[in-house]
Structure formats: structure tokens, C-alpha cells
Automatic annotation (TrEMBL):
Pfam families: NAD_binding_11, NAD_binding_2. It comes from Gonium pectorale. Residues 172-290 form the 3-hydroxyisobutyrate dehydrogenase-like NAD-binding domain. The active site is at 178. Keywords: NAD, NADP, Oxidoreductase, Stress response. It comes from the Eukaryota. Catalyzes the NADPH-dependent reduction of glyoxylate to glycolate as well as succinic semialdehyde (SSA) to gamma-hydroxybutyrate in vitro. May function in redox homeostasis and play a role in oxidative stress tolerance by detoxifying glyoxylate and SSA generated in glycolate metabolism and GABA metabolism, respectively. It catalyses: 4-hydroxybutanoate + NADP(+) = succinate semialdehyde + NADPH + H(+); glycolate + NADP(+) = glyoxylate + NADPH + H(+). Residues 9-169 form the 6-phosphogluconate dehydrogenase NADP-binding domain. One of its GO terms (cellular component) is cytoplasm. PANTHER family: CYTOKINE-LIKE NUCLEAR FACTOR N-PAC, OXIDOREDUCTASE GLYR1-RELATED. Belongs to the HIBADH-related family. NP60 subfamily. InterPro entries: 3-OH-isobutyrate_DH-rel_CS, 6-PGluconate_DH-like_C_sf, 6PGD_dom2, 6PGDH_NADP-bd, HIBADH-like_NADP-bd, HIBADH-related, HIBADH-related_NP60_sf, NAD(P)-bd_dom_sf. This is 6-phosphogluconate dehydrogenase NADP-binding domain-containing protein.
Amino acid sequence: MGDGAKLSVGFLGLGIMGEAMARNLLKSGLFASVTVWNRTLSKCQALVGEGAKSAETPAAVVGSCDVTFAMLADPDAALAAVFGDNGVLAGITPGKGYVDMSTVDEATSTRIGEAVTAKGGKFVEGPVSGSKKPAIDGQLIIMGAGDKELYDLVQPAFDVMGKKSFYLGSTGAAARMKLVVNMVMGAMMGAFCEGMALADKAGLEQSALLEILGLGAMANPMFALKGPAIMARNYPPAFPLKHQQKDLRLALALGDSLGQPLPVAAAANEVYKAARGAGKGDEDFAAVYEATVNKK
Ligand SMILES: NC(=O)C1=CN([C@@H]2O[C@H](COP(=O)(O)OP(=O)(O)OC[C@H]3O[C@@H](n4cnc5c(N)ncnc54)[C@H](OP(=O)(O)O)[C@@H]3O)[C@@H](O)[C@H]2O)C=CC1
Ligand SMILES: O=CCCC(=O)O
């Protein structure tokens, strides 16, 4: 690995993000091969049709690749892919790289990193900012931490998947940074939805609120992107609400462990929990609006 020959790369997890990211690796032509795996194996078919290989287990992917990337739902999924039967660990041999780009907490990432390195492998965590469209466009923002040699080795892959990557230090730093970023995002979206609900109740046009917000210091792409979906009350998933609530839960646990008060995020988390409880978990996180609307 790293001797100038093209790397063979693997990808575990072909959800909203993973499929687009793996497709960009494949389309780049930079890699000797791209081998994919997904728990629901049928989801590999589209990429296989475009030239990827597929394998039946994470171990088989890792066994046949120099470096394997993963983009999995949550800590349970990330741990299952590594420690489960025929998981990543069963395929790791000295020198192989594993790059987990899922949004998880530091404890999960550390446990995975220690297990991979105990078998002679190298580990990087690489959670991302940016949603479905930036994933398709190769415009993600990648937060990396862990083995610096592996981070440098996979820079071309990060350049294909993202517009900028940051090396933040030892394993755990990127997991923590990603949770802070998504805590801010979740709270912002909660406040925005309350504003949209209040505007409506107060007899104001939500489109006018959007325009006014967009012209001032609070202008941001998220309000501009999600505002129309909220007005239409239609939330096709780009970032599923269940993942945003997971990220708030993990950020609050980080705050707890450090004694950092997070009252705004805690309140936002309750609204996402209510939306999740109302069956909105698989819709886009903008569906948190539905939990802010007073139905009376
Ligand atoms: N969507 C977004 O905008 C963004 C998401 N993220 C993060 O990226 C990760 C993936 O997100 P996204 O693609 O949206 O999620 P999806 O829900 O679309 O995909 C989740 C993936 O995880 C797999 N999975 C779930 N549970 C398990 C398990 N127990 N064992 C093995 N595989 C499992 C799913 O497999 P199967 O198909 O079989 O269900 C699927 O491949 C999450 O951590 C999310 O927080 C980060 C930035 C943006
Ligand atoms: O974790 C998801 C982040 C979504 C985004 O950055 O738009």
C-alpha cells in the first residue's frame, strides 16, 4: 500500500450518502477497483452495473482492498460492521486501512480504531458535513482524525468525495467536531421551524420571512434550501431526521461527560424526539417542523 500503484478501495454502507460517495470514487478512475458492500445486498446492484465489484461481507471487502471506507447509520451499525460475524476485523491484516466516515461518538470510533490497529491495520475517522447533494457533487467537508499516514494516503479519495478536508488530530477529535457541528445545525433548524410556525400563526407569509432572513446576517443556505420544503410540508429525505436526533443525543452525551451545559440543544433534542415519535424519523430533518406546529 502506498508504493505508487493504484489503490484498491472498498466501501461499506450504500445509504443516501454512501452510494453517492462510492459512485464518485468509482467515476474518478483513480483506483484499481472499488468493491462495495451493503447490509441489504440488493443495494449494491446499481454500482455493480456501473463497474464496481461487490462482496457478501465486510470481511471480504476489507480482505480484497488496500483501504476500506464506511458510511453507516449510527454507532450500532458502525460496531456491527466491524465486530460482527465476517466483519471488518476478520479481514484486517497488517498495513490495511479502514476509514469510518459515519457520524458516531468518540467512544465508538476509539473502540473501532483500537481493534483495527491491534490487528496491524491503520484507522482514520472521517465524518462529513454536507448532505445528499454535496455527496453527489463531491462537495463534502471532511473532518479527519487518527493515523496521519493513512489520512495522507487517502487524500485523493477525500478530494474526490469532498471540497475540503481537515486533519484534526488523534482519533476522537473528528467525531467530537462533527457532533458539535451537527448540534449547532439541529438547534438552528429547530429555531427556524419555530419561527416559520409562529409567522404562520401570526398571519405572516412564510415566504416573506424567508426572504427577510435571507437578506440579513442570518442568511444561510440551509434556510433557503429547507424553507420551501417546510412551506410545502413535504420532506423527501436528504438528511433523515432520525440521524439528526441521534447526533443531538450524542452531542448531549458529550456535553454531559464534560460538564458543559447545553440547554438549547437539549430543548431542540426534545422536539426531534417528538417528531421521531410521530413517525417522521425517515423523512428529512426539516420534518421537525411538524412537531413545532400547534395543531389546534
Ligand atoms: N444524509 C446526510 O445528509 C448525512 C448523513 N451523515 C451521516 O452518515 C451516515 C449515513 O447516513 P445516510 O446515508 O443518510 O443514512 P441511510 O439511513 O440512508 O443509510 C444508512 C446505512 O447504514 C446501513 N446500516 C444501518 N444499520 C446497519 C447495521 N446494523 N449493520 C450494517 N449496516 C447498517 C444501512 O444499510 P441498509 O441499506 O441495509 O439499511 C445503510 O447502508 C450516518 O451516520 C449519518 O448521520 C453525515 C452527513 C450528512
Ligand atoms: O450530518 C449531516 C449533515 C448535513 C449537512 O451538513 O447538511
